[in-house]
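assembly run, all chains below
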Amino acid sequence: MSAPDRLRITGGTVYDPANGVDGETRDVCIEGGRIVERLPAGVPTLDAKGMVVMPGGVDIHAHFASSSCNHARRLAPDEHAADPAPAPALSDGAGPPRSGTGGTVPSTFTTGYRYAGLGYTTAFDAAVAPLTARHSHSELDDTPCVDGGFFVLMGNDEYLLRQIEAGERDRARDYAAWLLRATAAYAIKIVNPGGVEAWKTGQRNVTGLDDPIGGRAVTPRAILETLADAANALRLPHPVHIHCNNLGVAGNYTTTLASMETLAGRRAHFTHLQFHCYGGGGGQPWSSAAAPVIEYVNAHPEVSSDVGQVMFGPAMTITADAPVEYLLHKSSGRRWTNIDIELETGCGIVPLTYKDKAAVSALQWAVGLELFLLSADPWRVVLSTDHPNGGSFLSYPALIQLLMDRSVRDEQLKRVNPKLLAGSALADGLAREYTLGEIAIITRAGPARLLGLAHKGHLGAGADADVTIYSRDPDLAKMFSTPRYVIKAGAVIVEEGQLRRAPAGRRLHVAPGYDDAVLRDLRRHFDRYSTVSFENYPVRDVPGEPLAIG
Amino acid sequence: MSPGSAIAPVTCLGCGCGCDDLTIRVSDGRIAEVAPPCPLARAWFGDGTVPTMVLRAGRPVPLEAALAEAAGLLGAARGRALVLLAPDISTQAYQAALTLADVLRATVDTATSEPAAAGLLAAQRRGRAAATLGEVRNRADVLLFWAVDPAPGYPRYLSRYALEPVGTHVPGGRAGRTVISVAIGADRGPAGADLALALAPEEEIAALSVMRAVALGNTLGELPAPLVPVAQAAARLVKARYAVVVHDAEPGAEPMRDPYRAEGLIALAQALNGPTRAALSSLRAGGNRSGAEAVLTWQTGYPMAVTYRQGFPQYVPASRGLAWAVAGGAAAVLVVGAAASLGAGLNDAAGRTPVVVVGPRASEAPFPARVAIDTGVAGIHEGGTAYRMDDVPLPLRPPLSGARSAAETLAALLAAVRSRGGQA
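ok done. output:
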C-alpha cells in the first residue's frame, strides 16, 4: 500500500476515549495527515473489520535520546551483541533503512523502528541535562517514526538554587522559561530536588523536604514549589514532572506524600510512582505502601502520575539521581557510571536484572500493579516502565496483559518471592481487569492529555492521524506487541505487522516568554562559572515550530 | 588586534578542551589573529586557507565525476569496504558517513588512539566516575595529575578548567586547590605541584593499587619505600571535598605505557567516591574525535571498531580498522575527515586497495588516493556541532565560508552510491 493523502479505515472497533468512543464500529477518516469528520466516496480504504482501532501510543516517560543513554549504550556491548537489528525492508523513508542494535538501550534508529512496531507514535525522553540538549536533538534527528521531545532537568541547577535562596522566585521562573527556550525542551523536570547537588558535596544526599542543600538556605520543598509554580505560571502544556526524593528507599512513601501535599492545589505530575511507594525502613522490612499514595492521588485531581512498572528481566537504570545509583552499585556490585554535569545535574547508570525470585524485585512488581489496579482515574495514572529503568518499552504488551487478565497476573504472583508481600493488596487479591477502553486511556489518551497535546491521543477531527490497529488475539501480549497496521501522520508505516516506512518524527518543544531582565544577571553567572559561552549555550536550528502555549 | 571583522565566540577544536571563547579576526578572507593566543589554537586555525581540489587518480575532475568514481569503487567493495572516521569534521558529517557505511555494509573505525581505546574498553568493563570540565573548575579542591602535564598538549586546561579559575566551591581559585603530581618515568606532572612524587614505570600499577586500597579503607601492610608517599598522597585525596584525577588518554604517538593504567585510574576514581567525591578527567585530542565516538555509539551501540558486514553493527575492538586495511582485508577504503591524522598509515594498503578521501586537505593526503575531495574544516569553514573531551557538544561558529561542506559532500556520495544500487 502506498501512502495516500486520504484514507478511510473501515469496519474497525474503535476505542477513542477522549471522544467518548468505547468499542464502537465506525470509520476513521484521514486527510492531509489529520483526522477528518468524513471523506467522499471512492477514497482508498483500509479494511479493519474485526480489528481494534486506537490512537497511536504516547509514551510520557522514557529514556531513549540523551547523553545519559549514550553513556548507558557504551556500558552494554554484551546486550547489543545479543540483539542485532538488521535494517528493515522499507518501501520508502526519509533516508535509507538503518540497522542497529537492541538491548535495554537500543541504538537510535532501532529505537524509532521498535516504537513504531509497538504502535507508539509519540515519545518523550524524561531527563535531559540542559548542557547536553544539543546531543538529545541530534539523537532525536536519528530516531524516526515517533514525534518527540524531552524534559529538561532543573531541580539541582546552580543558578536556580541561587535565585531561590535569594528569594527571587520571579527570576527563577524567568530562568526556567529561558532554559526551556535555550534547550528547545518540552517540560520542566525535577529529579531528587537538591539531592544531586548534595551528592556533589560532602552531604551526599538529602532525605527530607526541609533539609538544607549543601549548607544553603534552600530546601527540596522550596525547589518543588518554585518550579511547580513556574510551570503553571508559564502555562506550560505539561506541569512540572517530578521524580521525588528518596527513590528506592524503604519507607519513602512518606516523602512522596509530603511532596504531593506540599504542592496541593497545584498541577503536578509525579513520575514512576512505583519507585516511591515503599513502606518499612527504620528496622522494619520493606513493604508495599501503594495504597496510601494512590488514595491521595485518587482524591486530588490536580495530581497525575505514571507508574514506572518493574518487569522481570534485564533493565538499565539511568537517572540523574546519581546518589541512588551509587548505592545501587554498592549493593549490587554491578558496573557503575557516574557523570557530574557542571552547574546543573548529574547522571548515574547501573545495569540491573529484576528477578521474580528476589524479594525486593517482587515487591516492586507488586507495588506497580497495585497502583494501576487501585487507581480510580486512569486518565491520571498512566502506563510507563520508566524505560529502561523498570524494563524496556518492549515489555508494555506484557504489562497490558497483566492488567487485563487476572489469571495471568495470579499465575505470575504464584511464582514470585512472597517474602515482602505480606499486607500487599495484590497478594490479598485484586480482581480488577482493565478494559480495552481503559488501556486506550493509560497508553495514549491519558498521556496525551497530561502532556497537553491537543492533537494527540485521540481520533477526533483535527487530531494528528496517528492510528494503531490491532488484530484481536486471545493472547493479549501478542496482540499488543504486533499491531497489524500503524499509521503515522496519515502514512501507513506498519503494514501486516511489518515496518514499511520510517518518516522523520516531529520535534515537540515549547518557547515560553520571560522578562529579559534575567539575561544580564544570567550572563554574569555564565561568565563566572560556566565553561560554555553564554552565546553558544542555546541550541539553534531545531526542526519545527514550538507549540503554542496558553 | 588588527583591523578586519571579528567573529566571536568561536569554538576551537585544536585539542579536546573545546574552548568556545575565542575571537577570530578575519582580514581579506583569511584568519589574521586568534585570541587568546593559545599555540594550539593558532596552529588549528592557521590562516584558514585550505585546498579546494577534486582529484581522480591525482588529476582534477568535476565533483560529479569524482563522486561517480568513488561510488563505483565503494559500491563494488560492498561488504568489504572500510570507512575510517578521521578528525576535523562535524558531528553531522559523521552521521552522514555512518549512513554510507551502513548502506555499504562496511567496517567502520575511528582515529581513537590505542591508549584511548584501552580506556574505553576498561570503562565498558567497569563503568567510570567522571565529570564535565566545569565540575573540575567549580569543585576540584585536590587534583592528582598522573604522569601528565597538560600544558603542552592541552594548553588552556589548567588556566580555563582545572587550576586557576575561581569556582562555585573553590572561591580562592588556585589557592584553594591542592595539586599532587605523579611522574612515571619521564612522564612528568605540571610544575608547581604542592606534592610531587616520582615512580619508576614498573612501580605504576602497584602504586595505583595502593591508592585504591587507601580509598577503600583497606589495611595496608608494610609498603616498599617508594610506595609510602603514594599512600600518603592517597590519604590526601581521601580528605578532599572533590578530588579529580587527571590523565592523558592520548599520550602522543608513543606506545602505550601500560595497558592497565587506564583501568587502574578508573578503579581509583570510582573507589574514591566512597570516602569523598571524585572524578576522572581523561584528556582527549581534538578535531571532534569524541564526536565520532558519540555518533557511532548512538547509531550502533559501540564507540569504535564496528562492522556492518552481516547487515547490522558488530563490535570488533580486537581488530582495529586501519590495521585491517593494512593487512589487506579491505577491498576499498573511504577516509572521512583529515587524512593527515592517519599519517602514512595507509601507504601500504593504498598501493593495492583503492582509497577515497573526503575531508579537509584530502588532496594532500600522505598516501596515494584514487579519489580525493577537499572539504572545509569543522569550526573553521563548516558549522554544525563538535564534542569536547568530556562529551559536551558545542556549536561551531565558522569564521570563514566558501569551502565545500563535508556533510553535504558525503550526502551526495551516499546518493551516488544508492543510485548505483549500493543498497540491499
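Residues 47 and 252 of chain A are 50 Å apart (CA to CA).

The first strand of chain A starts at residue 6 and ends at 10.

not gonna interpret more than that til we talk
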